[in-house]
Specification:
1% of the residues are buried. Helix 1 packs across helix 6 and helix 5 packs across helix 6. This protein has six helices and no strands. The model has no long low-confidence stretch (mean pLDDT 91). By secondary structure, the protein is mostly helical. It has a domain of 83 residues.
Length: 208
C-alpha cells in the first residue's frame, strides 16, 4: 500500500514539474518548492549524520581532538549573518574556506590534471599498421596547436598564424558542440527514465 501511494505521489509530482512545458503555473511552483525543500532537508540530515555527529561524538568527546573546535567555530560563524551587529564575522569564515579551497585545488588537483592534459597531447603522428590511430593523433596534435594559435594576441595574425587561428576556432566550435550534445543526451536520458517510470511503474503500459 505504501509503495502504491509513493508511486502515485511521485507520478503526480513528475507531471506537476513537466507542466512547466505548457507554461509556468501554481502547480509547478508547488512541486518545485517541495523538491527544493526536501533536497535541502535531506542534505541537512545527511550532513548531521555523516559529519557533525561523528565529529562531536568521536573526535571531540571520545578522542579529545580539540583541534576540531576550529572548523566548528568557523562553521558557526556563518550563522552570524543573521545578527546585523556581527554579520561581518560570516565573511571571515567564507574567506578562510575560499582560501583553503583555492590552495587545495591549485596545489593538489590543478597541477596533476594540468600536467596530464599537456602530456596527453604528446602523440606519435604515425603508428605503423594503425591508420585510424595515426589520423586521430594527427587531428589531436593539429587541433591543440591551432587552438593555441587562436589565443596568440602578441603577434599579428597573418599567414600561417591567421590560417591556424581560423582552424583552431573551428576546432573549438566542434568541441563545444560535442560538449553541448553530451549535455543534451544526459537530459534526454533523464527524461526517458521518467517516462519509463510513468508508463511502467505507474500506468503499467510497458514492462519496466
Amino acid at each position: 500500500m505504501l509503495d502504491t501511494i509513493g508511486i502515485w505521489v511521485a507520478a503526480g509530482l513528475t507531471l506537476a514539474l513537466y507542466s512547466f512545458l505548457w507554461k509556468e503555473n501554481p502547480v509547478y511552483r508547488v512541486a518545485e518548492h517541495l523538491y527544493v525543500g526536501m533536497a535541502a532537508g535531506y542534505g541537512v540530515v545527511t550532513t548531521i549524520d555523516a559529519y557533525v555527529r561523528p565529529t562531536l561524538k568521536n573526535d571531540l568527546m571520545r578522542d579529545h581532538k580539540f583541534i576540531v573546535l576550529i572548523p566548528i567555530i568557523l562553521g558557526l560563524l556563518i550563522y552570524t549573518r543573521y545578527i546585523r551587529s556581527i554579520a561581518y564575522l560570516a565573511r571571515w569564515a567564507m574567506a578562510f574556506w575560499l582560501g583553503v579551497g583555492a590552495g587545495m585545488v591549485l596545489t593538489r588537483d590543478f597541477r596533476p590534471y594540468f600536467i596530464v592534459q599537456i602530456t596527453s597531447t604528446f602523440k606519435p603522428l604515425w603508428v605503423p599498421g594503425k591508420i585510424g590511430v595515426s589520423i586521430n593523433n594527427i587531428l589531436l596534435v593539429v587541433g591543440v596547436i591551432t587552438t593555441l594559435m587562436y589565443f596568440f594576441f602578441t603577434v599579428k595574425r597573418v599567414g600561417v598564424i591567421d590560417y591556424g587561428a581560423r582552424f583552431g576556432r573551428w576546432v573549438m566550435m566542434v568541441a563545444f558542440g560535442a560538449a553541448f550534445g553530451n549535455t543534451v543526451m544526459a537530459r534526454v536520458s533523464l527524461f526517458l527514465g521518467r517516462m519509463q517510470f510513468l508508463l511502467g511503474d505507474w500506468l503499467h503500459l510497458i514492462k519496466s
